[in-house]
Amino acid sequence: MADKSTKNESNVAGKYYVDDQCIACDACRDECPTSAIEEGDPIYVIDPDLCTECINDYDEPICISVCPVDCIKIDEINSESIDELKAKYKRLKSGEE
User: Fold this and answer.
1) What's residue 5's pLDDT?
2) Which residue ranges in the chain fall short of pLDDT 70?
3) DSSP string covering 4-31, please?
4) Contact in structure between 64 and 55 (CB atoms under 8 Å)
5) Where in the chain does DSSP place strands (E)?
């Protein structure tokens, strides 16, 4: 399980978060298909309202695989079901708020 003591305070509750090892290299942000990763202060943050865990785009969350410092962690307490992720993906792709 992820060490939540490294979770930066600028991250909001969601399954994925960026810890304080982030070097703000843009690797994750450039690859995110839903633009869920944004510049924060001082590190990047993942917006759980936009994160679909890359469902329908990749086999696994691309942010984790492209991060050169392994700073994207998983908080299982805030997990969403596959059905919830698919509904969010559909809503985002259709342009609904």
Assistant:
1) 59
2) 1-13, 96-97
3) GGGB-TTPPSSSEEEBTT----SHHHHH
4) no
5) 16-18, 37-38, 45-46, 72-74
The gap between the terminal CA atoms of the chain, to the nearest Å, is: 32
Sequence length of the chain is 97
In this structure, the strands spanning 37-38 and 45-46 are antiparallel
My answer on whether omega of the bond before 68 falls inside 30° of 0, hence cis, is no
Residue 1: the pLDDT is 43
At residue 9, the pLDDT reads 62
Taking a C-beta distance cutoff of 8 angstroms, is the pair 13, 78 a contact?
yes
User: How many angstroms separate the CA atoms of 23 and 28, rounded?
Assistant: 11
